[in-house]
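Model: Ready when you are.
Researcher: Fold this.
Model:
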Amino acid sequence: MTMFSTSWRILVAAVAVLASARTQEWSAEKLATETAGFQSGLLKDRLAQVGGLLQHKANVFPAMVARLHGDHREYRLKIDQLLDQLADPRWQVREDAERTLIDIGGPARAVIEQKKEKFDVLEQNIRCARILDALGAKGTAAEDRERQLVRGLVTTALYWDADPRLSRALRSALGHTDSSIVDGAIRALGKLGGDEDATAVAQMVPWKGGVHRLAAVSALGRMHSAKAAALCRQVLDPKPTGDDLAGTKPSRTEIMAIVRALHSHGSDPDATALLQELAKSPDPVVAAGAAIVAPDKGGKVNARFTLPDRTVAPGTFGGFFGDSQLALGVFEGLPAAELSFADCDTIEFPDHAPVAATKPRIFLNQGSLLMGDLVGVDAETVRVVSPWFGSLAIPRREVQGIALDPELDRLVGASVDHDRVRRRDGTFVEGRVAGVADGKITIDAPSGGRTEVVLTDVSGLLLQRPRVVESDATTYSRVDLVGGERLIGFVADSSSDHLAVVLPIAGASVLPLSAVTRIETGVGGGAMWGFTLIADYSDNRVFEVDEQGRVVFEMNDVFGAWDAECLDNGNLLITEFAINRVQEVDRKGKTVWAYEDLKNPYDADRLSNGNTLIADTFGSRVIEVSPDKKVVWSYAKDIRPYDADRLPNGNTLIADMLKDRVIEVSPAGEIVWEMKDVPNVHDADRLPNGNTLITQRNKGLVIEVDRDGRVVWQLTGLSSPSDADRLPNGNTLVAENQYVREFDRRGNEVWRKPTSWAVEVNRY
């Protein structure tokens, strides 16, 4: 009897404890009210909120899973179905679909906007516009709060323990209409998921044209799952037909993200086996990245992480995963915070002071700047001994030039016809560098004969530039070293105190972080020295500033300068709108070439064939003029061109303000691409990814559009912009009224130079 009573009391107590625990579980309402930090626009506030939730893990979990699970996939399928019905041949079906989308479509605003821009039939465009207007009138505050909450919960999942219920909820979140939520769910599944999750993540690789591909392949590489490893193999070597990953051949950037993720596994046998296979890849960059390993000696390296709002958060570096990194000791409640490359694309190491360069600097066309001992130059190669990459034989065609004088700050002045040797007194020796040996440079003159120049008298070698340079659309990381080297390549592996990097031309190297001053992810290729040339229309001047914004060159009395370009030979090509002239001038202001049969031109570019392409704006034509001033090509079909660029495919891109459009014209004068409805268009640039960057002056707007004319990125609220350039690091440089400004990929201003009225800007 006593035993029964005791057992009964224990059972009652257990039930009471369980009931008490359940009463402490957060409701959906409590979850919403206790997560105000997720509504902040600041990353630090959102991550602090994550840390707060982790203090209540047991109580939060049920409500969190329910909110994440939702009905995202069903909702997305319903929205896609309704959007398709907007093109149904039956009028009543179209009407019902439009009304339903107005009633339920608020969270799917982004999807509806995409369909409006990329419609199947015109009526879809018209009805989507009406739906968006109606949704705007209803307001989006509640939907925005819900989206921010779900985004925060997806981030929180990264710091949770693996749990089948959480994995199911995250798989459901893959169907959300917000792409950042989908990317977050993919990243969380990469950390927590298993075989079943691997299949769901793999389905996101080709989803919607690959918009989530980098996140998905990174997650597959990170998963501790035999199924994920098998799917990685399919991604890396997809079959032509017969599987869901057919036709999803990854880029080198995506393959290296997989390599980076696999390295983070440690001794996991599936990851090790896959790395061993990749080490035999025919791609030397992939093979080197798979084989190299960054040692971890337990060092603690201070770092500063640049957040999306441009604030800099101090902490210590923890290493990279596929598309994210660890920031240690940065955020309250999160000793180890995982930041995606979208959350943080720049890391600085403030304790690592730069040292003065003493060895020759080798500038590569690809963008890297190497240092080392110059061993020799012959007809095919430049031979260098690098302290990081060892003995290198670099193809001459890959080398932009070599700076021997530590004071030489740029290599402007190369020729497309021959090499140029720059003496320390500023004079040049023209010809072909035949060799470097015994402290001398041998140059074959264009007219015959040989010249020798003592190496100590030389400040730099400018090697012959190719007439046509193909755009490099690859996404790299940039690693700056204390000695001044700039490495544009891939981080293959990392630890808390080392990096393993691979450069396409130089090979692989392990770097102690003590040698690194800065890491930037998501940059493009291409060599730049940080000089900015500005045409200031109001002040009648053209001037050049360095990276610190200091004026290092200035030319005054330039009448109505609307365009200025720095040429390969160091001269300037200046378009003077007010006096109907395009002229090439040297750095002393002497006219080298001029063309004046024009009517208020706005733009001119020197082409690789030596001709000059001119937007003769009020002459209503674009013309190509030879050095002897003959018009060898023109397009004059009812246009008022404010900008014209010759594309690598031989076509010409024209910003036509007369008809509010941008057109791409073939050599035969046929329009092969057109973007309409861009009023007051002043500038248009074709980007390496195939998109077009367009500047609209009166709207204070710069937009990036894809080949279908869909806006994929924009800057708003500008002050009468006339020109915009996309830089290799992904930033955008804009010439505006009163200043030149540089904006990062999120639209944050990162640099400015006051002017009176900047109308053109170039950085090189």
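Researcher: Now this one.
Model:
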Amino acid sequence: MALWFPYWSLQKSLWKFETDFRRSARYYEVVQRGRFLWWVGGLFVLFVLFGCGTTADDKATSSAGGATSSASGGSGGMGGATSTTGTGGTIGPSGPDAVIVTSGATDKILLRGTVLTPGAAIVGEVLVDGEFIVCVAPSCASEPAAATATVVETNGIIMPGMIDAHNHVLFNVFDESDWSPSKAYGNHNQWTNEPRYDAVVDAKQYLNGESGSPINLNCELNKYGELKALVAGTTAMVGSANPGNKICYRTLTRTIDQTANGLCGTVPPQSCTDNVQANTLFPNSTSADKVCSNFVTGKTRAYLIHLGEGVDASALAEFDKLNTVTDPDGCLYSDRTVVVHGTAFGATEFDIMAQHGMGLVWSPRSNVFLYGSGTDLSQTTDVPAVRTRGIEVALAPDWSLGGSKNLLEELRFADRVDDEMWGDSMDAATLVGMVTDAPARLLAVNDVIGTLEVGKRADIVVLGGDVTLPYRSVVAATPREIRLAMIDGVALYGDDQLQPLHSGTCEAVDICGRAKFLCVAVAAGAAKDKLSQSYDEIVSTLQTALSEYDGLGLSQWSFAPLAPLVECGGP
């Protein structure tokens, strides 16, 4: 260990070239405005909710089954919201808990509730047989698997597992207490030079076994980041973990940008085809030409690139540079290319993106905190201008160091930006689509995940809320409201009374005062793959390593304790 100290010091000067783009933002509390007019509006909405049913903007629940507010136990709506898409207060009591009404096979599960299908919300059922969805309908009783299935009355909302199209998962052991911007920046090359941010990078690289570090916890770092996503209803993530393609990257949330994505086999994960390619730094000509070659061969079906992150001319210039970095010019202006951020872009760039069928990943929270001092909501990508041109948009949290802690937080922040900056231009169903079917299409995995349809893999989330306003309930939800999260038909997380849905070993966790189960350990695979680690072991290992790193005195700042799995009472 003593010999390692001087080596570590020499390496620190090289870490400014860290291969991840990392960004941050001060933690921002979304608060409700208390104008007197809202009292009047609240009374009006209560009348509408309980007298007239679901509003049109929430995609009214289908008449099949006829959902009523009593199904959610009188949840109290959305805190007197006056807008079908605004934050409208926090979600009220979710009513009756989900309950297992028939105990059957754990590999055949029938969920009853308000189902978010591709076209509308219906009152119905979703039947899972093994890894796949075999029925989505008002009733699945006629399906052979239904006869022996475990039946769950969810008393809630059944939706596709959410997909995070952009995250830096290894940094999610940190939060804003570890680093916050000192000012508003113009582009992504400025804030990465701050000494305290550089110290965070040092700590991350130490934990991740980089630059001569004596420890290697990249499995634990990735798993913890995946857990932060899973407990908030995210079942797939582009996390940019490195080194790539480790088996331990798929024991929890589906690691969609790795060969261990689970799309070709069950746990323990097999090595699967990986058609998603991501660049967290602008590529050189050789790398860019290779992407174009991969487009031709079909090896890359989706290419994500950080581009135009910032608000100045330097960030804007990256769009033209993307055109000329390849030989021949322009091959990355493709319908397989997805721009991550595009904050600096305007009409000219959006027109070109639309012409070539390019997509966009939007991360408003980190945009605002880095380029708007945490308060200027205008300092984010002009999403209405993007959508007007027919460009597909996915919503993603970026990372918990400064973006949102999870996709549910990012949904609420995006809703606030839309309400206050763009006059409530996006309804709740549109926002929910940005974390389900839209990212599935952008990542070219919409044939297997992203919607609740027969034949797709059973990545399913159940949450509590007002079933007459299902989309609004999703936008308003927190991890506490997530009643069940399944990946490949396996129940990995949920309310404690649903633990019998998992046939293996699970752990008890408390999420904002609600007892939950969390199934992390997998009794298979080689010891080096760390599949058998429990949640407690992962947390303990990371906590100890952070404390030991602080004790080395390599930085004037300390990074223990570990950032919490969730933050209760947040925006």
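Researcher: Key takeaway?
Model: The first helix runs from residue 4 to 12.
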